[in-house]
Each structure stands twice: as C-alpha cells, then as structure tokens.
Specification:
Elements lengths: L2 H19 L7 E3 L1 H8 L3 H13 L3 E4 L4 E4 L4 H14 L4 H22 L2 H17 L2 H4 L5 H9 L3 H19 L8 H21 L2 H20 L8
Antiparallel strand pairs: 1-3, 2-3
Bound molecules: zinc ion.
Length: 235
C-alpha cells in the first residue's frame, strides 16, 4: 500500500507528459491495457491505479472493450468546484478575495473595453437581458458572477477568466451560506444589475477609466456585503 500509489503516480505523470508533448490530441487512443502494462513494466494493479489518477485529472479515460486509454479534454467545472471549496476551507476573507478580484477584474475590464467587438457587445447585452428577465432569481440561481466572467473572457486571457470565475463563485457561495442572506434578495438583485448595466455601458462606449471606476465601486460593494456576513466558526 505504501509503494503502489507512488509508482502509480509516476506512471500517471508519464502518461500525462506524453499527452502534453504530443499536442493533447483529444480522442487519441494511447494504447490498450496490456500494451500500456507492457510499456511501463508495471503490474495490472499499478496500471489501473495510474489510469484512475489520469481519469481523476480529466486528461484520459479508460474505454472498456477494445478501446484502451483515450485522451480527453479537461472539464473546467472539475477544476472550479474543488478550488472554490479549497478556498472556503481556508476561510478566505472578503479582503483577500477583493484584493485579487480588483487586480484581475480591473485589468480584464480595461482589456475587454479595448478589444470589444460586435459579438462581445451582443454577449454582454444578452447577460444583462437575462438578469433583467430573471430578476431576484438571478441571485438565487447564483448567476451574479456571469457578467464578470464574460468580461474576463472578452479580455481574451483564459487564465484570468478562470480565476475571475472561481473568485466570483467563492463570493457568491459565501454570501449564500449566510442565513439569512445578508440583504433582501430583491434589493441585492436590483443593485447588482444596476451596477452591471453601468459597467457594460462604459465598456461599450470605450471609456476604459470609467469602466474601471464602475467595476471597482461594484467590487467594493460586494466586499462590504461579504464582510457583513458572519462566517461559521470551526469547532
Ligand atoms: Zn457583479
């Protein structure tokens, strides 16, 4: 039990290395179970443990029958949820998320404003329309960070978009865990939507300084609401 996971982890790392250096060809069959056991010179038990590790990492999956180990595309959701839970376990403070969100999202807002095209304008307007249509439900459905994610995507930086998303989810979830919700949901939805509409207007008009100013004001408001939420203490 002490040796097996370590060897399996090494085999998993070798499989992942091969996938990366070969250009991450989704759907490619890396080999059948007997082929790969032969190649890595490990027992079937070790190989199966390695296959479970790469499956858990979302990089390949064992297809039963004649298939073998097949390269897959990682799933963003498989990353976001554990990361958000990890930060919740660490009792990340509103000040900590605000500090990072401000850096990332002010940068994203500037880049999105500079690079905005017709498709981007359409997507931003669709999100505002959806918020309007859902009203308070957009808060209850935990959708208030979607506008932030879209702006980060428009900045054309997927690293930024991922961290904006995880920190947005974190703030949303920590507010939702407060009982009762820190302010009347209808008020929260109206304030959030109004702030989002003002940010989008500045982004579309191409005014970087104004868009950033409005985003900062909005992030400040989120941090203040989160700061008012008492976190449960760990026993
Ligand atoms: Zn917002």
């Amino acid at each position: 039990m002490t040796e097996r996971p370590r060897l399996a982890e090494q085999v998993a790392a070798l499989i992942e290395h091969d996938i990366i250096v070969n250009g991450w060809q989704v759907g490619k069959i890396l080999g059948s179970e007997p082929d790969l056991i032969e190649r890595f010179q490990v027992s079937r038990a070790v190989f199966r443990e390695a296959a479970r590790i790469v499956e858990h990492h979302n990089v390949a999956t064992m297809r039963r029958g004649p298939g073998g180990l097949v390269v897959t595309a990682p799933d963003e959701r498989a990353v976001l949820r554990p990361l958000s839970l990890y930060f919740q376990y660490g009792r990340v403070s509103p000040e900590e998320t605000f500090a990072v969100r401000a850096v990332l999202e002010l940068e994203a807002t500037a880049a999105a404003t500079r690079h905005l095209d017709v498709d981007g304008i359409t997507r931003l307007r669709e999100i505002l329309a959806q918020e309007e249509e859902l009203g308070p439900d957009h808060i209850l459905l935990k959708g208030s960070h979607l506008l932030h994610v879209e702006i980060a995507k428009l900045a054309k930086n997927q690293v930024m978009a991922l961290f904006v998303e995880v920190l947005g989810i974190l703030d949303v979830e920590m507010m939702h865990e407060a009982d009762p919700y820190p302010l009347p949901v209808a008020d929260a939805a109206a304030a959030s939507h109004k702030a989002h509409a003002a940010i989008v207007e500045a982004v579309i008009s191409g005014d970087v300084a104004l868009a950033q100013h409005r985003m900062r004001t909005h992030l400040n408001a989120i941090a203040r609401i989160r700061a008012a939420v008492a976190q449960p203490t760990r026993p």
